[in-house]
Design brief:
105 residues; mainly alpha; 2 domains; 0% strand; flat; DUF5361
Length: 105
């Protein structure tokens, strides 16, 4: 299927929607659209969560755990921000009238 084929007598937009909604998580189209956040499914997420909790339980029984230091880091998940890098947003202040004029309203 090609996007340029739509709409046509043979293919409708409903056909395209049906095709896309039936795509597998590992298809090239879904991977392209979801990016890194689509690399892991629910099973992989739950497995990583279990591993994280197990590491914390084991750590709690150590001397470091009893003193509350050297807490184990969780397994990094694809598509999840670790919180270290922050992007500062900047922009120009405009009134509602100025913004409407800029947008052509």
């Amino acid at each position: 299927m090609r996007l340029r084929w739509f709409p046509a007598p043979d293919y409708t937009w409903a056909d395209l929607i049906a095709f896309i909604s039936g795509l597998d998580r590992n298809s090239a189209t879904v991977r392209q659209e979801l990016g890194a956040s689509g690399e892991w499914g629910i099973q992989e997420q739950l497995l990583a969560l279990n591993a994280d909790y197990l590491r914390i339980l084991i750590w709690m029984r150590t001397e470091d755990g009893q003193k509350g230091r050297n807490i184990p880091k969780p397994i990094p998940r694809p598509g999840v921000d670790d919180g270290k890098e922050r992007t500062k947003l900047s922009g120009v202040k405009r009134t509602a009238v100025e913004q409407a004029a800029l947008l052509g309203f």
